[in-house]
Amino acid sequence: MSVLKESTKLTTSNISSLVGTGAGFDLMRYYTLPDFLGKDAPYLLYYMGKNMARQTSISTFEELYEFFQYMGWGELKLVQEKKKEMKFHLTGHVIEKRLHQKIFHVEFRLECGFLSETIQQITGHTYECFEEKNTKENFIEIKAMKG
User: Per its UniProt entry, which superkingdom is the organism in (predicted)?
Assistant: First the structure.
């Protein structure tokens, strides 16, 4: 069952009014959902991100970067673009905190799914995204590979 009305799309305007706490979101995402979903959690979180992106009306990379910040996912920036690959860095205080906490294993599959679907909406080309953690320099590198 969809919570959104059919005509309602997520935008930076309407999500900016939401109140969120990072700790509650992280506990649900990294503790409760994996416990509930089991070994399929990373796969399902990726597709949850793709589904969430389908409910947005993001049409530019600038809107995408703004959306990531409003969602509390960190600061997303395109750092390299090749013919069949885009490389993004996800940075910021929230990323540093997630990378160095000692409570649970963190992953960024939700963000990757969201990013892959949104890039497809913006460019018209299919992409798959994979993340790599850089705990020394406190960022996540996300590679978007053209399919």
Answer: Bacteria
For residue 62, CA distances in Å to 29, 39, 110, 131, 135 come to 26, 34, 19, 21, 26
Q: How far apart are CA 108 and CA 94, in angstroms?
A: 12
Q: Check which CATH number belongs to the domain holding 106 and give it.
A: 3.30.1380.20
Q: Is 28 helix (H, G, I), strand (E, B) or coil?
A: helix
What DSSP element (H or E) covers 30? none
**Does residue 131 contact residue 87 with C-beta atoms inside 8 Å?**
no
**111 is a domain residue:** yes
Q: 52-105 pLDDT, tens per residue?
A: 999 999 999 999 999 999 888 999 999 999 999 999 999 999 999 989 988 888
Number of domains the chain contains? 1
Name the 3-class secondary structure at 128: strand
Give residue 132's domain range. Answer: 22-146
Cβ(62)–Cβ(8) under 8 Å? Answer: no
In a domain, residue 7? The reply is: no
| 4 domain-assigned | no
Give the predicted TM-score (pTM) of the model.
0.86
The answer as to whether 6 is a domain residue is no
